[in-house]
Amino acid sequence: MESRPATMAKPSRAGAPPPCSCLPEEITFWEILVRLPPKSLLRCRAVCRTWRRVTCSRDFLLAHHARQRSLPIVSGVPGSEYGGARYQDILSFNHRAASAQLQPVARLNASFFVESSCDGLLVLSKSSNSVTCLSICNPVTREHAPLVDFT
């Protein structure tokens, strides 16, 4: 007699238990998921509707944001000199660190100027030959891209 390989039955969606049913939801959401990095949290939203609903809620997002590390800040003293050129430092800000522990993650020379910042992103300008070019920069990832002139 010929034996057939066993096949697995497809799981039923209707009666399936929620993910991590062995843990209380309070621990799953407020102790585990809230500690994930943002990219991993986005992936968790695809697990089930309950996880998506909770991880999109205002309270959860505020708790998640409060646990994220601080974003960089820009520091510089007008007229400061470094190698004969004015400069600005981009610092990794940690409110728990003493000022002696703050170390620059990047240094901008006199040809760049920080126009604006938002959520750790910087808008930089560089002028040459009476033309100003704008770029957006993420000092954490060390990525940058030119901004298109909208005029």
Automatic annotation (TrEMBL):
Listed Gene3D superfamilies: 1.20.1280.50
Domain F-box as annotated: residue spans: 23-64
Pfam families, alphabetized: F-box-like
Superkingdom assignment: Eukaryota
Protein name listed in UniProt: F-box domain-containing protein
